[in-house]
Amino acid sequence: MAFKGMLKDEDIAAALQHCAAAESFNHKEFFAKVGLAGKSTEDLKKAFYFVDQDKSGFIEEDELKLFLQTFSAGARALTDKETKAFLAAGDADGDGMIGVDEFTTLVKV
User: Fold this and answer.
1) For the chain: N or C, fewer Cβ within 10 A?
2) Where are the transmembrane segments (predicted)?
3) With respect to CATH, is domain 9-108 assigned 3.90.190.20?
4) Binding site membership for Ca(2+): which residues?
5) Cα torsion for 96, 67, 24, 34, to the nearest 10°?
6) Distance (Å, rounded) from C-alpha 59 to C-alpha 80?
7) Tens-place pLDDT, residues 54-96
C-alpha cells in the first residue's frame, strides 16, 4: 500500500466507506477522515506523488477519476461530476491539472 506508515489502515477504510456511494465524494471530508488534512507539507508532497500515477508532475483528470483507488485497489472510481468538481477545487491556475503546490493547498484548506 502506497500510504503505509503515513496513514492508518482503519482511517483509510473509514474514509472510503464514507464515500462508497456514487456522488458522495467530498474532498475536504475525505482528506480529514483519511488523516491527510493534518499532515506536514512534506508528507502531502509524498502523497501527491502517489496520486500522480504517470509521474508527470501533475494530477490530471484521468488520475483524479481513480483517486480513491490510490488508497485501495478495490475502491470505486469517481463519477465524472465528482472528478470535475475535485479538479475545479484544486486547479488554482486553470491549466486543467493539479500541481504539487495546488494539491498541498487543496488538502490544507
Assistant:
1) C
2) none
3) no
4) 52, 54, 56, 58, 63, 91, 93, 95, 102
5) -120
6) 15
7) 999 999 999 999 999 999 999 999 999 999 999 999 999 999 9
C-alpha separations of 72 from 13, 41, 97, 99 in Å: 8, 23, 23, 22
- Structure-block grid coordinates of residue 50: 502517489
Return the residue matching grid coordinates 485501495: 72
Tell which residue, 101, 88, 96, 90, has the closest CA to residue 45: 101
Residue 10 to residue 64: CA distance in whole angstroms:
22
Q: Which residues are annotated as a binding site?
A: 52, 54, 56, 58, 63, 91, 93, 95, 102
Location of C-alpha cell 480513491: 68
By CB neighbour count within 10 A (0-12 exposed, 13-18 middle, 19+ buried), where does 3 fall? buried
